[in-house]
């Protein structure tokens, strides 16, 4: 039976999971990203991580497709990493092709946020024509589903909503620009604010105890304005809101939706937008990557899945 491997690379952790052709998942594993990305050759480290994972799960596993999810900018054809801020050694590298050659398995890659979105789309029946996903975690992830497929833009850089400049914002963004909305609307900003203003409060309880603080009220309002701007440009029928920040205890989801809707242009998208909140879990990214791997496999000419064999260097 063919299996599909999803690899979800995050700034903190890398997650791996297998799925069979009946969409049964198994073998979830979470590993600190620096355990491989901090090596002198991150690509070799990632190869070893994947190889050992597959060997541990089942050395005779029939692997049909491997899918990488990366939190950076990829080329339009998804063959080259253009910018991966926390693993810059992989910039301008054909990472999927190199891994495929090393592992002797078909490997493809996409933005990690598209895998979150693909998972969420699969939970809601018929696929919409136009949909948007906003996932607020460490940064602000943005997935665009337009005319029945993910939209990458002319060069691969579409969906960088977190890098719209805000007037009067002088903060330096990890992307190298100044004033990006992500510097004020992200988990990173919340962490810094909590450390400075309410250090005694556990971060997970930030909105339980301080949702009424003016700074956090403005945080929610800023997020609503940012999302509404994209809604008014794209006029989607379906919006998914998710990510670790929105999953925090007592995050004011109803206020976010109310404020977002108050900024929508009438009659559309105001009257046609369906908003859904993602039930995101620790496994969602690699589950979505597995489903994306199966989608890629099914779209290609029939190729037999191959048993994985752990390659040993001479």
Write the layout of secondary structure elements.
Elements: E1 3-9, E2 13-20, E3 25-32, H1 34-37, H2 42-57, E4 62-70, E5 73-74, E6 81-83, H3 95-103, E7 107-111, H4 112-122, E8 130-136, E9 140-146, E10 149-150, H5 187-197, H6 206-210, H7 214-234, E11 238-242, H8 253-262, E12 274-277, H9 284-299, E13 306-307
Parallel strand pairs: 1-4, 4-7, 8-11, 11-12
Antiparallel strand pairs: 1-2, 2-3, 4-13, 5-6, 8-9, 9-10
Describe the structure.
By secondary structure, the protein is α/β, with parallel strands linked by helices. It folds into 2 domains: 3-114 and 282-307, 2-Layer Sandwich (Nucleotidyltransferase, domain 5); 125-277, ATPase, nucleotide binding domain (Nucleotidyltransferase, domain 5), CATH 3.30.420. 33% of the residues lie in helices and 22% in strands. The protein has helices at 34-37, 42-57, 95-103, 112-122, 187-197, 206-210, 214-234, 253-262, 284-299; strands spanning 3-9, 13-20, 25-32, 62-70, 73-74, 81-83, 107-111, 130-136, 140-146, 149-150, 238-242, 274-277, 306-307. α4 (112-122) packs across α9 (284-299) and α7 packs across α8 (253-262). The longest helix has 21 residues, at 214-234.
């Amino acid at each position: 039976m063919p299996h599909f491997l999803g690899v979800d690379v995050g700034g903190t952790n890398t997650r791996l999971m297998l799925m069979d052709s009946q969409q049964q998942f198994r073998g979830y594993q979470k590993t600190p990203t620096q355990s491989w990305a901090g090596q002198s050759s991150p690509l070799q480290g990632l190869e070893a991580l994947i190889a050992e994972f597959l060997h541990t799960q089942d050395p005779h596993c029939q692997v049909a497709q491997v899918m990488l999810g990366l939190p950076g900018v990829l080329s339009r054809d998804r063959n080259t990493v253009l910018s991966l801020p926390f693993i810059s050694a992989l910039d301008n590298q054909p990472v999927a092709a190199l891994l495929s050659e090393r592992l002797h398995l078909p490997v493809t890659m996409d933005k990690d946020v598209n895998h979150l979105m693909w998972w969420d789309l699969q939970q809601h029946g018929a696929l919409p024509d136009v949909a948007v996903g906003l996932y607020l975690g460490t940064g602000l992830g943005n997935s665009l589903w337009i005319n029945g497929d993910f939209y990458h833009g002319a060069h691969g850089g579409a969906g960088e909503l977190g890098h719209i400049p805000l007037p009067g914002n002088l903060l330096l963004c990890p992307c190298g620009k100044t004033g990006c909305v992500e510097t004020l609307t992200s988990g990173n900003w919340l962490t810094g604010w909590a450390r400075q203003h309410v250090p005694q409060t556990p971060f997970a309880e930030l909105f339980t105890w301080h949702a009424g603080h003016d700074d956090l009220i403005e945080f929610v309002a800023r997020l609503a304005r940012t999302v509404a701007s994209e809604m008014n440009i794209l006029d989607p029928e379906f919006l998914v809101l998710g990510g670790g920040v929105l999953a925090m205890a007592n995050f004011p989801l109803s206020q976010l939706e109310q404020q977002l809707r108050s900024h929508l242009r009438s009659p559309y998208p105001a009257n046609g937008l369906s908003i859904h909140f993602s039930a995101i879990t620790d496994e969602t990214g690699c589950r979505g990557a597995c489903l994306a791997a199966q989608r890629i496999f099914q779209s290609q000419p029939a190729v037999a899945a191959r048993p994985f064999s752990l390659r040993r260097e001479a």
